[in-house]
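Re: the 288-residue chain
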Amino acid sequence: MLAQTHHKIIQYAYLMRLHRPIGIFLLLWPTMWALWIASRGVPCLNLVFVFVMGVIMMRSAGCVVNDFADRHIDGYVARTRMRPLATGRVTTTEAILLAITLTLMAFLLVLTCNMLTIMLSLVGGVLAVVYPFLKRLTNLPQIGLGLAFSWGVPMAFAAQMGYIDGAAWFLFITAVIWPLIYDTMYAMADREDDIRIGVKSSAIFLNSMDTVVIGLLQSLFIVMLVIVGLMHRLDFPFYFSTIIVALFFTYQQWLIKDRDPSNCIRAFLNNNWVGITIFLGIVLSYKL
């Protein structure tokens, strides 16, 4: 009995992608950018805890919902055929209960914040649930991911400041662009499988223009980061971080130029360093 329970816990962890924390980091960084800017470099420690744990819970719940939505097609994709729902190691009922439990745990954390943050969290929950189904409805499901992965920005401002101003919403829009970049790289790795099974993505939609559009989005993201810095009166370390980000983007372009799936995944993973770099630039702006 104990061994069976341990096995189930392991499968739940795989379903939540805890063995691949890159998604947690990509969701976390924009939230931390916002929390540090909203607090002028001195965030409330309880809010840091709430948002870090909330990110872990909601990303995990999002992975469960994603695999539930893809349970009939994951078995036909080389990269996903061994996922717990695709192999039957976790039942659909267990997956639904797990997603509900994780979402409720995240909501309990948000209840320690003000009413505006609580209301925004409901929108975030809808975005997390809707996104996995967009790949069947639109050629640009990455926009849904961008909204879902950036919703922590207005939530952080609301929690820290009690309101959301225009500069905060501009940071949100800037943050939305970033997932369009890295998730298109991710989709490039799955393009052939996605075409075969009829799943839509920005990589399929853009076709041979994929690398060009990614480059344009990367350039736009850099410009908007500079504007964010000016709006929030950040100092030199932040602008230096944007230069480093531009170098990372150049490296990513080199990786994806031949559209090799393994290199596209490497480019996708490299975006964690983009998030860290921007965060450090913000932190150092308030420390130096």
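The two ends are 56 Å apart (CA to CA).
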